[in-house]
Amino acid sequence: MKILSVLFSAVLFSLSLSAQAGPLIIKYSHVVADSTPKGQAALKFKEVAERLLPGKVEVQVFPNSQLFGDGKEMEALLLGDVQILAPSLAKFGKYTKKVQIFDLPFLFDDIDAVGRFQNSDKGRELLTSMADKGIIGFGYIHNGMKQFSANKPLRTPADAKGLKFRIQASDVLEAQFKAVDANPQKIAFAEVYQALQSGVVDGAENPWANIYTKKFHEVQKYITESGHGVLDYMVIANDQWWNGLPDDVKKGLSEAMTESIAYGNKVAQDEDMAFRQKVIDDKKAKLIKLTKKERAQWRDAMKPVWTKFEADIGKDLIDAAVAANDKPAKHKKSEHKHSEKK
Ligand code: LMR
């Protein structure tokens, strides 16, 4: 009898060991399509992590709000129900006021300026701005500059008056639309198509990749090429989970993270204009290009939002972002050389 029970315990022990010996499951959840920059980055992370750590980790990617949508995903991360997220920079307001900087309208001239700021010391400091909340940031992934869309043509700020716009959960974006007397409504990304289609809202703001992959151009009559703000991401994990990982796993995952972020940024750079062209080719929504004068009107109307959030964000940070609009001297020189050669 005694021998039997010893045997039984031994079997149980080895069963539990083999359960432990299985790969570590890492859930990476996001709300967009696989073909977008973030979707591609998540799949690259899986590929690289599983190649570098064979049998040790299994990365499960959940796109399109399949596992968690906006609103629930951050909570899930803190509870340990998901390990990696890459929320849009507009979705961190509850955890840090600093990251709100990315939502300030007309702050960055283009996506290269956004990249220069993100790679600067001040930009990189923001990756640890939620450390006290148990969240660590690994890096930024671009999606692209946002464009306005609506069921009526938006050329000047006066055209937006009284219209309802879907926004991400961001107080800055709320203020941005209020600045042109519009009606902002915070709605989760998974519900945007229906909100536009049913007329719950009249318009929205999105980068080209999201417009195309979620078919927003099929339920909006006009898209105004405004490039008035940026929609990028921070890749994050739960601090406690990350720091509890064995060193070799952490090393492999760090490498996978670096490679996947670089890959996502390359996709964003290569595909932004291709997504734009696909939207145009579909001929569902009419593209409106702003004249310099019209764009300046939007900028003048929306820029007071900066002052409103300056105390929360910090003037030093805003100044650093503005400075990132200057192209580095090296760039200018090589452009110059290039034109000399011609
Ligand atoms: C949105 O809610 O519009 C975006 O944050 C979605 C995304 O992740 O690109």
What share of residues is helical?
A: 40-55%
Averaged pLDDT: 92
Roughly how many Å is the radius of gyration? 23 Å
Q: What's the total helix number?
A: 14
Oligomerization? single chain
Main sheet properties: 5 strands, mixed
**Beta-strand level of the residues, as a percent range?**
15-25%
- How far apart, in Å, are the first and last alpha carbons? 92 Å
Number of strands: 11
Write up what this structure looks like:
With 342 residues, the chain is of the alpha/beta class. Helix content is 47%, strand content 17%. The chain contains 14 helices and eleven strands. The protein has helices at 2-21, 37-52, 73-79, 111-119, 121-125, 171-178, 192-198, 208-213, 239-243, 247-282, 292-302, 304-313, 315-323, 329-341, and strands at 24-29, 57-62, 84-85, 135-145, 147-150, 164-167, 183-186, 203-206, 222-225, 230-238, 286-289. The strands form three sheets. It has a five-stranded mixed β-sheet, sandwiched between helices. Strands 8-5-9-11 form a four-stranded mixed β-sheet. α2 (37-52) links the parallel β1 (24-29) and β2. The longest helix has 36 residues, at 247-282. The structure holds (2S)-2-hydroxybutanedioic acid. Residues 31-32, 70, 88, 143, 168, 189, 206, 210, 231 line the site of (2S)-2-hydroxybutanedioic acid.
